[in-house]
Write a structure and sequence with these properties.
heterodimer, A: 689 residues, alpha/beta, 8-stranded mixed β-sheet, 5-stranded mixed β-sheet, 13 strands, elongated, B: 311 residues, mainly alpha, 12 helices, globular, binds iron/sulfur cluster, transmembrane (chain B), membrane (chain B), transport (chain B), cell membrane (chain B)
Chain lengths: 689, 311
């Protein structure tokens, strides 16, 4: 906690303590009285007798600053206390009760906020009398609306959290809930704002004093000191500079403390603040051959992020190739790195704190070697992308026309008129009715499906060779999903492009993809032609994904049945095979050693697993002795049947099954032979139990 | 929709004027002492009170004052006998010029600073700019004013420390006389706006549509100015409206500090002269102006953000 607040926080706290201590013990300090004239020569600069010099009447400036601190701090603390005491209960009430209470309190509050505070303070203090109490009360009251607003906001956030709801459901009285659950949580934002509020009050008091409307002479105030010093500016600038500087430091210190405290509570901000370190370093790539004649070759691609939690390996050594006219699907759970893979191929990863490695070849040209300008040209003309959520994919404050025409004008050098005509054609080609009218509209005026069509039209506008579609239909209505996918496929055929389709919906993948890559924890765990991969699944993770495909009996719009267990933490991935904590077939070797990509018996089919599903035959590297494939297939079938019956919770428990005595027995036998089939059988056995 | 807003506006205006009226009438102090002096006889005061309707019920006085407001008659100053509306009308252009010039300075500095900081978020330039705006934010406006006078008027002697040349007299001198006050007043706002813009831009730059704009091969400069700035400008506009209160408060001080004959200085002078009616008129003018500007900001907001615009 101390470290997180930073040195500036402690420095600021130190300064405030110093000022506070000096103000409190001013009478005890060896200082001349603040109103004692001719303690030294008038207008003398700082020296040993008068560390801050003397003013026009020869009064000691240090003494006056220290006594002035009393007024400033008293008003600062007092006004905030008053504001909190009145504003916080009102805010809690409004935020907790909502409805009418909220409406009334906030209505009054909004009107109160409509007054220019300082002008009002001026008028009131002037007529009620300029003394400490009046200034304090006026500034305190003027602070109330801001307090109400702040506390209400914080209360609302917390009263929506589960623990408050739970307490309410359990029948706790409102007051108890408020004191036990809400108040403690609201206190940190309140504390943070209290410091900022003190800074505001000190400045406001200073302003009043500067105008001569705060505590009256002879009591010194900082604002008053600065005002008095003005005529001496030419000959004795220290008289005005020193109180100014002290005041600045004090206000800064209060603000800083408030700001640091708020930064601790504000999760949103810490997420948005980019990591400070900037690395342009490249990770070395493993040696590889550049293949001839393929459209896209990705070789050992890596993208790592430096975060506060450590290095996140979002993409960790991915390789694949893609030919013209083909569709490659990338599947995996969310968080498996598939979206990041696409961004990484396109070079769209955030720059700060990112480590990239590997190569991306487009027609043999290494895109990772290009400079920014060249890469932009490639991005504009040869590669295109469509993202998941059409609601966020279009700029909400620019017209569709402006957005669709832009790449045409930038990359193809079209004139406005030509670009407009072309944009209308593009919209028509993706099936948007009334294209000319749509060009003039804003994104929020279109339905989700229409917007996704627009983003596709934009992606296709400069005739790309490859379209990267990241979950292009996930956010859409089921009825629209199919239309959009058909549209992409039709465009693929017409333009002879290649499509990279990221999806977690295996039914979509099965229907459209030629090749499939399965990703887990940033790595490719299985890869192959779609048909082979689905029929002869080797990797247990793929098997689990397939099993999770929604059945017809599932409610509509039910994207994915949950796999047991949690997706891995990419900052601290599990050792060995990253899937082992969730894998029903996991054994000791899985946690110790990472499986490489093995070549399956079928061509172009690769998988990363020590004990693949449904094998026996065809494994080239691992097991020289193999049993018949038929036995394995039977085992797999049994396993599947058993699985159907098993509850999800039981399944989750299976990940731990190797530790049970039953499986230890069989482990010995298998370790002798390293026999994949036994593995499956054992899995089936334990499932049946 | 607009009609509803107008009704709301009217309501707020009524409350604002009533509260200003109430507050200044409930406070202790007797205007008759001010006008007739301490030595005046009780009968003379009684007479004057009747003339000024000071004994009427508060509400009926408010109504007649409101009626006067509608016809532009806010009474005449007890001390100088100058009609309040006239005095305000004379001072208003100065204040308006100061406020506008300050906003121009503030936005002129804040947009480049905010954009530069957001583009290099987390890097040294950003850190330096963030620290600078934090420092500016913590500098009371009179402290900044005094410092600027010290540097530019006293030491360098390039700008006048005080004084005002009306725009009708000489444009050049007018601008010279408004420059230092505007910079002083604008700087504090710069910090507010720049910080806001930076945070907002950093958030906007992480939106999908920005990544997709990059995927379309658009240059960072184009993305920043055409794609990111406009959504972020919307929060900026709101901030401008909300900040007006602080700006007006600052203007009162700046006018006093730099000796500008504006509404703020008139209010301060009238306070010291115990000139109730003028103070009241000034406070009402400022409150009403504040409410109206915020109303206008709401309208601009609608124009800039098509998501709110009615189809
Ligand atoms: S069997 Fe082992 S290597 Fe294969 S997926 Fe399971 S944990 Fe990984």
């Amino acid at each position: 906690m101390c470290r997180r607040l930073g040195w500036s926080f402690w420095l600021a706290l130190g300064w405030i303590t110093l000022v506070l201590a000096a103000a409190a013990t001013a009478d005890l300090l060896p200082l001349p009285r603040y109103d004692e004239t001719l303690t030294g020569p008038p207008q003398a600069g700082p020296g040993p007798d008068h560390p801050f010099g003397t003013d026009g009447l020869g009064r000691d400036v240090l003494s006056r600053v220290v006594y002035g601190a009393r007024v400033s701090l008293l008003v600062g603390v007092g006004a905030v206390l008053l504001g909190v005491l009145v504003g916080a209960p009102l805010g809690v009430l409004a935020g907790y009760r909502r409805r009418a209470t909220d409406a009334i309190i906030m209505g009054v509050n909004d009107i109160a906020l409509a007054f220019p505070a300082l002008v009002f303070a001026l008028a009131v203090v002037a007529f009620a009398g300029a003394n400490l109490l009046n200034v304090l009360i006026v500034l305190g009251v003027l602070g109330v609306p801001a307090w109400v607003r702040l506390v209400r906001g914080a209360t609302m956030v917390f009263s929506e959290r589960e623990f408050v709801a739970a307490a309410r459901v359990l029948g706790a009285r409102d007051r108890t809930v408020l004191w036990r659950e809400v108040v403690p949580n609201v206190s940190l934002p309140v504390l943070s704002y209290a410091f900022i509020g003190m800074a505001v009050a000190i400045v406001a008091e200073g302003s009043l004093a500067f105008l001569g409307l705060s505590v009256q002479a002879p009591t010194p105030t900082w604002g008053g000191l600065i005002n008095e010093g003005r005529p001496l500016m030419e000959n004795a600038p220290h008289v005005v500079l020193i109180p100014s500087f002290v005041m600045f430091l004090t206000v800064l210190a209060f603000n800083l403390i408030g700001d640091r405290l708020r930064a601790m509570t504000d999760v949103r901000q810490s997420n948005l603040e980019p990591v400070r370190r900037r690395t342009a370093d490249r990770l070395p790539a493993r040696p590889h051959d550049v293949e001839e004649g393929v459209l896209l070759q990705v070789a050992d691609l890596r993208t790592h992020f430096t975060t506060a939690r450590g290095v996140v390996r979002a993409v960790d050594g991915v390789s694949f190739t893609l030919e013209r006219g083909r569709t490659l699907a990338i599947v995996g759970e969310s968080g498996s790195g598939k979206s990041m893979l696409i961004r990484s191929v396109l070079g769209l990863t955030p720059q700060a704190g990112t480590l990239r490695g590997g190569h991306v070849y487009l027609d043999g040209q290494d895109l990772t070697e290009l400079d920014d300008g060249q890469m932009r040209h490639i991005l504009g003309t040869r590669l295109a992308a469509v993202f998941q959520d059409p609601m966020t994919a279009l700029n909400p404050v620019r017209t569709i026309g402006a957005q669709v025409m832009e790449p045409l004008m930038v990359h193809l050098g079209m004139k406005r008129r030509a670009a407009r005509a072309r944009a209308a054609e593009l919209l028509a080609s993706v099936g948007i009715p009334e294209p000319a009218r749509t060009l003039r509209r804003y994104p929020h005026q279109l339905s989700g499906g229409m917007r996704q069509r627009v983003t596709i039209a934009m992606a296709l506008s400069c005739g790309p060779d490859i379209l990267f579609a990241d979950e292009p239909t996930t956010a859409l209505d089921v009825t629209v999903q199919d239309q959009v996918l058909r549209l992409i496929q039709r465009q693929r055929e017409e333009r002879h492009m290649a499509v990279v389709l990221v999806s977690h919906d295996l039914s979509v993948v099965a229907e459209w993809a030629d090749e499939v890559i399965v990703m887990y924890a940033g790595k490719v765990v299985e890869r192959g032609p779609a048909a082979t991969l689905f029929e002869r699944t080797r990797m247990p993770y793929t098997e689990a994904l397939l099993r999770a495909v929604p059945k017809l009996t599932d409610p509509a719009h039910h994207p994915l049945r949950l796999l047991p267990g949690r997706p891995p933490d990419l900052a601290h991935p599990p050792s060995g095979c990253a899937f082992h904590p969730r894998c029903p077939y996991a054994r000791e070797r899985c946690a110790a050693e990472e499986p490489p990509l093995f070549q399956a018996e079928t061509p172009d089919h690769l998988y990363a697993c020590w004990y693949p599903v449904g094998t026996g035959a065809g494994v080239v590297e691992t097991s020289p002795e193999m049993t018949g494939a038929s036995g394995a297939a039977e085992a797999l079938k049994a396993a599947e049947e058993a699985e159907e019956a098993a509850e999800l919770t039981e399944l989750a428990g299976l990940a731990r099954s190797p530790k049970s005595p039953e499986s230890r027995e069989s482990r010995e036998s298998r370790e002798l032979a390293e026999h994949e089939t036994t593995d499956v059988i054992e899995g089936a056995d334990s499932r049946g139990r | 929709m607009i009609a509803l807003r107008l009704v709301r506006l009217l309501l707020v205006l009524l409350v604002v004027t009533f509260l200003s009226f109430l507050l200044l009438n409930l406070l202790p102090g007797d205007p008759t002492t001010q006008i007739l002096g301490l030595s005046a006889s009780e009968e003379a005061r009684e007479q004057l009170r009747r003339e000024l309707h000071l004994d009427d019920p508060l509400f009926s006085r408010y109504l007649s004052w409101l009626g006067g407001l509608a016809t532009g008659d806010l009474g005449s100053s007890y001390t100088t006998s100058v009609p309040v509306t006239e005095a305000l009308a004379e001072r208003l252009p100065v204040t308006l010029e100061l406020l506008i010039a300050a906003q121009v300075v503030a936005l002129g500095l804040a947009v480049p600073i905010g954009v530069a900081a957001a583009r290099r978020a987390g890097r040294p330039l950003d850190q330096a700019l963030t620290a600078l705006s934090f420092g500016l934010l913590s500098t009371p406006v009179f402290v900044l004013g005094v410092l600027l006078i010290l540097v530019f008027a006293v030491k360098l002697q390039v700008l006048p420390a005080t004084g005002w040349t009306p725009i009708s007299l000489d444009l050049g001198w007018n601008l010279t006389s408004v420059l230092l006050p505007a910079i002083t007043l604008g700087c504090a706002q710069t910090a507010v706006y720049a910080r806001l813009l930076r945070t907002d831009l950093i958030a906007t730059l992480q939106e999908d549509y920005i990544t997709l704009a990059r995927a379309r091969g658009l240059s960072p400069r184009r993305i920043l100015w055409r794609h990111a700035l406009r959504p972020s400008a919307i929060s900026l506009i709101t901030a401008i409206g909300l900040n007006l209160g602080a700006l007006i408060g600052g203007a009162v001080i700046i006018e006093t500090l730099f000796g500008l004959p504006g509404v703020g200085r008139l209010i301060v002078e009238s306070i010291f002269a115990r000139d109730y009616l003028t103070v009241q008129g000034g406070v009402v003018l400022i409150s009403v102006g504040y409410v109206l500007v915020n109303f206008a900001v709401d309208l601009v907001y609608v124009a800039v953000d098509p998501r709110i615009r009615r189809v």
